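Handoff note, outgoing to incoming analyst
You'll be picking up this chain. Sequence as last confirmed:
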Amino acid sequence: MCGIVGYIGPKEKKEILLDGLQELEYRGYDSAGIAIIEGKKLHDFKAVGKLKNLREKTKNYTSEGFGVSIGHTRWATHGKPTELNAHPHLGAYSYVVHNGIIENYQELKKELQQGGVTFLSQTDTETIVHLFEKYHNEGLTPFEAFKKTVNRLEGAYATLLITEAAPDTIFFAKNGSPMLIGFDGEEVYFASSDTPIIGKANEVYYLEDGEYGYVQNGKVHLFDSHGEKVFHTQPLIADKAMAQKEGYRFFMEKEIYEQSRVMGETMMGRVLEEEIVLDELDADFFEGINAIKICACGTSYHSALTAAYLFERLAKIRCDVEIASEFRYKEPLLTQDTLFVTISQSGETADTLEALKMAKRAGLKSLSVCNVDNSSIVRESDTAILTRAGIEKGVASTKAFATQTMVLWMLTLYVGQVKGTLSKEVLKSEIDAMLHTPKALIVTDELHAKLHRLSKRYLHGHGFFFIGRDIFYPLALEGALKLKEISYLHAEGYPAGEMKHGPIALADAELFTIALMPKTMHYDKIKSNVEELSARDATICAISPLPFELADDFVQTQYSSHPMVEFFEMMVVTQLLALEISVRLGNDVDMPRNLAKSVTVE
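Most recent structure output, in case you need it:
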């Protein structure tokens, strides 16, 4: 998840780009860069880290007169945060910025290298500029070369390209990643969202997937698969805070809705039709590994618990899960045939980082699952798999949990592949379920409206039990945690079979039970557990694809072909229910009391 800006016109371009990138810094802050063509001369500046570093680098530069310009703030998906990996990427005479993931970049890169092209970065983006110059050098016009380049790209992208071969033109294309065009007379702006152009442009056009084109002499030429097309602009909203939230009331709400798209980016280039490909892992990475120990805190701990079921059931490898803050003080037995896995959204979680250092001192091989490249945990680990969730601003984690769980599911299948413990038939079935997951994460208007209506019934009482079995037990823990974090109501997650071993003593009409009842896993068992609670007059909210006659409230899910697909669909329901209850209680959903996004103390 990165941020793009672009401008073509007579104004001073450096400040337009830097101001625009400042508004997009929430989308990525590993590195940033700008490129400007004035007359026929190309200038570029890049810096690692926060945008202030780029401002410092460009303080003595000012652009003058008409020119074209592009800028980018990066959230790493391929390659470490370095100046070489920062955008814009340079060919011999062109620059490109890109948001998204080019799924076939390895194939394109190999083809270009065989043609004598030297790559400077580790990114997928650099293939775009070299492919463009290859086609242009073969005699195509700049636009024909750009069009042919775009037709070769697979995956998600929003991209801007400028070139000395057409110094008065910006080329653009969009597929799967957001980008818009802003207008102020003959001046034209590009951005990943509204905020960079509010106060500069007065009209906007939101590009649709498959659209591409170029801007020249203040005119936008827009094309799709049917050729050049007419388009209509609309007025630009003026509220920057609302623009950053893209129309949602809260960042948490936006992030819940983003999960379907983000999950596609998590899987892109990794989940193929018949195998899992993890470029981050060497071929011999799992040699000598006979067990896995996962260490994490909070939401990440719940994704780890889910993974433990998958590793043992599918990959047939022992998996133990530890709460990092406890692991540090229990004098654990660590053997070198164990892979030590840490999970953290921020990569700065203090307890998890210290647990990792303990494992390193004991000589264990380590792997981290993280959302932030170049974070402390990533740097400390032998290798890392990035979740590609993009920046999560809501303190209560949603898409980070979803993408962590998906990465661990992918890792499970990868282990099964390399160790030969997973049949081809089971692998194909699991991959098919993975590829259906983004659909299960789509929030429909009907679902959200139903949960909004239900939420008014769950504002009082003496607490909540979220119950589930197997992988739905960690999901129950996570559902309860989400509700606690933002509503301040007491909630517990429990294995459904444990209710009769004590907790059922609390059951009465003021005890709310959120029952996760998947069709594909132990349905009759959990149905029996819920019936026991109903007999004690507990208020039951059942989440299931199968109607449940004893439920006081029933949320019907759509998918029932695979437990993990049901898992992710039910996850969305629990997130939205927590959100709507919190909103009704008048709480600050994005900044709940007493909590911080990144826990950097013990």
